[in-house]
Design a protein that fits this description.
The structure is a homodimer. By secondary structure, chain A is an alpha/beta fold. Chain A folds into 2 domains: about 250 residues, 4-Layer Sandwich (Metallo-beta-lactamase, Chain A), CATH 3.60.15; about 40 residues, no CATH class. Chain A has 11 helices and 18 strands. A 7-stranded mixed beta sheet of chain A has the order 6-5-4-3-2-1-18. A 7-stranded mixed beta sheet of chain A has the order 7-8-9-14-15-16-17, with helices on one face. A two-stranded antiparallel sheet of chain A has the order 10-13. In chain A, strand 8 and strand 9 form a beta hairpin. In chain A, helix 3 crosses helix 4. Chain A is globular, with a radius of gyration of 22 Å. Chains A and B meet through helix 1, helix 3 and helix 4 of A and helix 1, helix 3 and helix 4 of B.
């Protein structure tokens, strides 16, 4: 799993910072997460192939998280894309995009499929044989979801010495990999755990932006390998965080600690701060390891 | 009058080129003309004060001319703007912007006034005591206007020697400046032209993007000092220009010649061309002088 930060600042684009957008490469998928203004340019700068993006996840309808979407959808059309594009985001997003296509008389020539989200509970919104994506209901000024990206457990691994010693027919290997107990050639029931090993540990990534401090997400993001949690403010501006429904670095770290995540990644910084390292230092008083998102930075999970 | 090109390429933004947007400084106004994605970043790069922009003119509802507008409107809100913002553009633009404000629950705290355009004839859409803005109906795939920016003629200049010789009372000077004939102190009618000189020549700028070759605009843009006329294609791709309702460099030059403009400025280049100088060379076979718009370039009129 590889995460590329295209933009990680709050508010609007500036000459040297970009609003929220990330690319997650997971099991041959390229998932685009949020799409602030200028995302298509950042995709090009980071040499990410447009054609490989088939799923876009939009957390909420504040401009710094979706104003770049209509431009990207439109560019796909100009590039004569034919592949389906799936967009997951709050109800209303479809109306925004289709209104603009209608008025510019520029309908896409590829299938554009909206999956509008309205649930206040975590739900499975994407699944194939190797990956699942769940929503993470967040608390913000408008309806907002984070997203949990999980690899599915693969097959159990055969312990070949044990399998051969147990005289199990080759025809049963597939069932063993799937975790079933099977009969051996002598009609004896063989316990799966005695002849197989656990599958390779799966990886997971949770994206939580924007949100007030919200312990309700802890069970959903429990034990993820990497947690991106917004930290718009430092603790000294906690009084700004509460009414705007954002979090401080310390609050993000508290969530990371309670969820026992592998690593915390901070982002969505208010542009009022010059020294991002203060976010790291503040979070590290509660939880380690902590990393700072920065535009263009790549994290391997 | 000063024209700053923020972006001058057709289609969508790339890492090194911007879609259409221009800033015209005219008699203390800062007029923003078209607003492709990323315009707010280009405004910052070109150090143009956001607060001074009070009028935005949008030619048509293709994305490369307006996808940056909603972000700019939103940024003005975050900057706690209080000044009125007037937006002139095709019918539908208000619906696009207000839908997004509604869904993000982010209404502007400053007066946002839309002037939606529907006329197929040239009309006066802005006027104060020194400046006029008229639409230039263009031929494109969707409803499109160019814009003509004209300084109003100032007062006539008094020829003080002649005025004094003619024994005209000071009380009549204002009428003289306005072009009236007046009586002198001996009751004789004095011909205005004998005691005044023509006002300082006014300047004018015409912005025409996007459009098919259209001689109907010639009378509207007659004698302008600077004509920006799109040249999406070179003559060798004229077969692409016709169906997409764009122009070639040669066609732009032909319009410039017929209108007797002071200077032709080319832009809205298709990104298929590496060497922009070919546009200049092609246009110069018909008309001179020709200049090439380039992102970040400034022209004084």
């Amino acid at each position: 799993m590889k995460l590329t930060i295209l933009g990680c600042y709050s508010a609007t684009p500036r000459a040297d910072t970009n609003p929220t957008s990330q690319v997650l490469e997971i099991n041959n998928h390229i998932f685009l997460i949020d799409c602030g203004e200028g995302t298509q340019v950042e995709l090009r700068r980071n040499k990410i192939k447009f054609a490989r993006i088939k799923h876009i996840f939009i957390s909420h309808l504040h401009g710094d998280h979706f104003f770049g979407l209509v431009g990207l959808v439109s560019t796909f059309r100009l590039l004569t894309r034919e592949t389906e594009l799936h967009i997951y985001g709050p109800k209303g997003l479809k109306e925004i995009i289709t209104l603009q296509m209608k008025l510019s008389e520029s309908w896409t020539n590829y299938p554009l499929i909206f999956h509008e989200l309205t649930s206040k509970d975590s739900e499975l919104i994407f699944e194939d044989d190797k990956v699942e994506v769940h929503t993470i209901p967040l608390i913000h000024r408008v309806y907002t979801n984070g997203f949990l990206f999980k690899e599915k457990p693969g097959d159990r691994k055969l312990d070949m010495n044990a399998v051969l010693n147990a005289d199990i027919d080759v025809a049963y290997y597939r069932k063993l990999k799937q975790g079933a107990n099977v009969e051996n050639e002598h009609g004896e029931m063989i316990n799966n755990a005695d002849v197989t090993k656990a599958p390779i540990k799966t990886k997971s990534y949770a994206f939580c932006s924007d949100t007030a401090y919200n312990e309700a997400i802890v069970p959903i993001i429990k034990d993820v390998d990497l947690l991106y949690h917004e930290s718009t403010f430092l603790e000294k501006h906690e009084k700004l965080a509460a009414p705007t429904k954002h979090s401080t670095a310390k609050q993000a770290a508290s969530i990371a600690k309670q969820a026992g995540v592998g690593k915390l990644l901070l982002g969505h910084y208010s542009t009022r701060y010059d020294n991002l390292n203060d976010f790291k230092l503040e979070a590290e008083t509660i939880f380690t390891p902590v990393e700072l998102a920065r535009d263009g930075k790549v994290f391997t999970i």
